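Hi all, long-time lurker, first post. I run a small reading group and we've been trying to get comfortable going from sequence to structure in the token notation. Rather than ask abstract questions, I figured I'd post a concrete chain and ask someone more experienced to write out its structure so we can walk through it together at our next meeting. Sequence below, copied exactly:
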Amino acid sequence: MSEKNTNSASEQKPYEPIAFAKKHRISVEDAKAIIEKHGADRKSADKEGRRVSV
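-- Answer (accepted) --
Happy to help. Here is the structure in token form:
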């Protein structure tokens, strides 16, 4: 039997603040706040990161 790999939000790890800050070109402080707010929900965190970077 083969196992399926799922990427549900409950199984994902939250971003590392420095990597997230570099990805979205924002401050590490902003990145930490976004990660704290959105936790392991990378889709929501990325959406917020794009908003902040504008």
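A couple of things your group might point at:
The radius of gyration is 13 Å.
The chain has a mean pLDDT of 85.
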